[in-house]
Design brief:
The protein is an alpha/beta fold and about 160 residues long. It contains 5 helices and 4 strands. InterPro entries: LMW_PTPase, Ptyr_pPase, Ptyr_pPase_sf, Tyr_Pase_low_mol_wt_mml, Tyr_phospatase_low_mol_wt.
């Protein structure tokens, strides 16, 4: 658990950085703001393990789900690169495949914590599944997961009781 005086940086990671991770980024940033905890964070961002969508806006269904819940989304897809391991304290993945990719690419000596974002879900829903090829209800399910995990992560950091 970090010292609460230290500014924390968090990168949310999925495969293409257009559905799950930009949603997680937006929801987490919104949750941080709602709890008046912005002074504890230096950077909140998201990226993908693959570069399929670099420069693109988030999937319209992901953005619409966030908007329906009053959560603003402002992101352009990017790919995880080696400097992210130095820039961010936490790289939080959506599924085991993302986790394995990031652990394999993690530079020696990096102090970044690489883990599943779902590990912080108090309901134990560890895997945030890719909703891309499914219906809108998958995006709604993801939204609920990342909302719970956002609160759980803030509790893990000692910023919420």
């Amino acid at each position: 658990m970090p010292n609460t005086d230290t500014k924390i940086s968090v990168l949310f990671v999925c495969l293409g950085n257009i559905c799950r991770s930009p949603m997680a980024e937006a929801v987490f940033a919104h949750t941080v703001k709602q709890h008046d905890l912005s002074e504890h964070f230096i950077k909140i961002d998201s990226a993908g393990t693959a570069g399929y969508h670099v420069g693109e806006k988030p999937d319209s269904r992901s953005a619409a789900t966030c908007k329906d819940h009053g959560v603003p989304v402002n992101h352009r897809a990017q790919k995880v690169i080696s400097r992210h391991y130095d820039e961010f304290d936490y790289l939080l993945c959506m599924d085991e495949s993302n986790l394995e990719d990031l652990q394999r690419k993690k530079p020696a000596g990096s102090k970044a914590v690489v883990s599943l974002f779902g590990d912080f879900d108090p309901q134990g829903d560890r895997i945030i599944r890719d909703p891309y090829y499914g219906a809108i209800d998958g995006f709604e399910h993801n939204f609920k997961q990342v909302t719970r995990a956002s609160e759980g992560f803030l509790k893990h950091l000692g910023l919420l009781a």
